[in-house]
Amino acid sequence: MQIKVCGMRDPENIHAVKELGIDYMGLIFWPKSPRYVGTINVNAGTMPNLPCQLDTDGTPAETNQKQPALVGVFVNEMPQTVVTCAYNYRLDYIQLHGNESTIYIDNLRRTLVPDILPNVRIIKALSIREADDVKRWREYAGHVDLFLFDTKCESMGGSGKQFDWSVLNGYDGDTPFLLSGGIGPEDAERIKVFNHPRCIGIDINSRFETAPALKDTERLRTFIHQIKD
Known about the structure:
By secondary structure, the protein is an alpha/beta fold. Helices cover about 25% and strands about 20% of the residues.
């Protein structure tokens, strides 16, 4: 069970969460989000507010420490902005959380691979409320590397609300997916018995926060231990 913690921003919090051994760390590049990472200093060639490859004192992290894959979350963003963020933050994954078309996705991949980020992968988030929403996966099959099934709501994620996981029984595609949407500390046992052959992990965010973009590391530690046990 892989674990993605999304909506990270605070340097010390990033460092603490990284030490929990998570698999993915999500950074939100949507300006309307309360977890927006901020402006990129392109000329400095640095990653402000995000020392994922650095310790909190600015020195390189220990090479034997597990580094989570870095996921950038975008919502209907201009392709050039996505490319710039992906390059400056050295993203491992690009998560598209809007209404991006397959043409958009294919063009984005061709721009990045192989010259800019040859190993970057693309996640398409799909908003789910009912069984028919799951069927949208067919539109993106063969164009993305991973799906993320989130709760359909007025905002673009981070609502803290869950959808009925049983509707995912209708997903019969080959592309693996992450389960998302309002997963909280009390859901460890439900996740352990959730069974779908293409589910490789979970995405957690607001239900583990003390404030937007600030995660409660102890609650995360306990939850991860329960999941991995």
